[in-house]
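User: Okay, second chain of the day. Same drill as before: sequence in, structure tokens out.
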Amino acid sequence: MGIFKKLSGFFSTSGPQKAPDYSTNISVKCNRCGEIIRARIDLRNDLTINYDNNTTYYCRKVIIGEQRCYQKIEVELTFDARKKLISRLISGGEFVDES
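Assistant: Same drill. Structure tokens below.
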């Protein structure tokens, strides 16, 4: 009976493990209708590397709301080598702090 207990302990995990989150979320407000839109940036797939600026990453997203209007909101984000946000630009809207 002891061998089965050892085998089951080998294959089972020691409690629920949370997978690392490789994303960041941004919230924007449309200039035309005021809708607040949340968007997710996947840090593994959405970033483009920029070797010219000491290895920074760049992301450009076009966000469109769902409810009132279909105004395009363009967001340009720059990340450092550790994929931390260092600058952001927006046209067609404004950034909203997530709360």
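The CA atoms of residues 33 and 68 lie 7 Å apart.

User: Thanks, on to the next one.
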